[in-house]
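Students often ask what a holo structure prediction actually looks like on paper. The answer is less mysterious than it sounds. You provide the chain, you provide the ligand, and the output is a string of C-alpha cells encoding the 3D arrangement of the protein together with beta-D-fructofuranose.
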Amino acid sequence: MSEALDRAREYELLHEREIAPEERPAFHLSPRVGWMNDPNGFSYYKGQYHMFYQYYPYDSHWGPMHWGHAVSTDLLRWEYLPAALAPDTDCDGGGVFSGSAVTLPDGRQMLMYTGVAGTKREIESGRAIQTQCLAFGDGRDYEKYAGNPVIDASCLPEGGSPYDFRDPKMWRAPDGSWRMAAADDFPGEGGRILLFRSDDALRWTYAGVLAENSNRIGRMWECPDFFPLDGTHVLLASAQDMLPRGFEYHNGNGTFYMLGDFDPAAERFTPSCDYAADYGIDFYAPQTVLTPDGRRVMIGWMQNWDTCNLHTRTRPWFGQMSLPRELSVKNGRLCQAPLRELEQLRAGAGVHERLAIENGEISLPGLTGRKADISLEIEPDGELYHKFSLFFAKNSDYHTGLSFRPRESTLKIDRKFSGSRRAIIHQRRALVRHDAGALRLRVILDRFSAEIFVGNGEQVLSATIDTPPEAEGISFRADGRVKLKVDGWTLA
Ligand code: FRU
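The corresponding C-alpha cells follow.
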C-alpha cells in the first residue's frame, strides 16, 4: 500500500471518533471524516452495495481527491471501509477523480477512475491532464493497474480536451463486451459524452459520441450515467455553468436527464427531451446501480458547488449523499421514489390525520423531530386556497418552509431561516402539475436535509440545512381553506 493511502487510512480511523453519530445524517451517507463530493463506483458486489466517494479526509473543503468507501446491505445503513484510493502515482498524483465499478468474470471488482496529473499550478488552472485509469480489488483493498492510464488524450476525437476528460461510467453490453461513457469538453460547443468499448476491460477504444451539448445546457458536462429503463434509455449528466431556462436549470451546476432511443447497432443515442433531475438546491453528479431485484436506484451528491465552500474549516465533515431513489419512466418523465426499504425505518404506527385548516397553522402531536417521512394530500376545501405551507426544523429562531401556491402552480423550498449566515440564494421554485389545487407530496427529513417528492416523483426538490438539532417542530399552515391528509412517521 502506498504511503499516501496508508496515511489517509490512519487519519480517518483516528479522526472519525471526533464526530458523534447524532452530528451526522442518520441514513444518508456522509464522509467518514473531512470532505465528500460525487458518488463513485456505486455497485453491488459480493452481496453488498458499495459506495465510493470523492474524498479529502484532511479538511472539510475540497483537496487532492481520494476515494472514500462504504458498504451497506439496504442502502440506508452504511458501514465505513478504509479509503480505497489515494493520489499516489504518476498519472493520478493530482487527484483520483470520479469513476465507476464493475465485477469482472474472474470475480474481482474493477474500478475505473480519472487520474489527474500535473503541477499544482496546472491543476488549479484546469491545465492538468486527465486520463482514465484502472484498479482491481476484493471489495476492500485495491491495486492500481501497472498499465495505467488505459485511456488517454490519444483516444479523443478531434476538438476534445485532454484537460476536461473525466468520470468514466462502465457497464457490460448484452454480448459480454464492455462499454464506458465519459465526459469531455469541446471548447466552444460545450460537453460531449463519449462512448468507449473494450472486449477484455483492459484495452479500450473510442466508439463514438453518445450525446453532445451543442451549447444547449451549460458548458462542460460531467459524471454521465446511461441505462435502459421502462422501454426507453436514460442519460444522466451534470452540466456546469447552466443558464436558467424557464423553471429549468437554476442551479449553476446541476444534473439533467435525457430520455431517448438508443440504436444498438450504430450505438447512437437520440434524445427526445431534457429536464432537470432535481428542482431543489442541492443535487449533483448522481450514479445509478441495478439492484439484484431489478430496480434502478440513483444516489447523488446532495450539495451545490456554489455553496459548498462557505463553511468554517473547523467543521469535521462536509457533504452528504441523497436518498437512494428508485427510478421509473412515466408519461415521458423520469420519476423518482424514495427507496422502499426506507419504510422499515418508520418508528411505530405513525400519525394519520384528515383535517381542515382555515387561515391558520397547526402541528400534530407525535409528529416532530428531524428524521421523518411525511406524506401529504392537499386539496381545496371549497374555494381555491391561496397558499399551503409545511414548516420543519422549526423553533422560535429557525425554520425551513415548503409552500405551494395553486394559482401559480409553484412549489417553493425556502431555507432562509435554516441557520445560514451567508448571503446566498436560499430558495428555489418548481412549476408543478396539480389537479385544481390537489397535490400529493412526500417529504423525507434526515437531520440536515429535506427531499420532497412531488406527485409520482416526476419532480423532486432536495436541500440541505444547517439547522441546530433542537429546532424540531413540524407544522402545517393554510392561507385560505385546505383539506389535508397527513400520514407521517418519525424515522429511526
Ligand atoms: C463533479 C466533479 C467531477 C470530478 C470530481 C472531482 O462534481 O467535478 O467531474 O471527477 O468532481 O472531485
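The pocket of beta-D-fructofuranose is lined by residues 37-38, 54, 65, 97-98, 114, 166-167, 222-223, 284-285 (CB under 6 Å).
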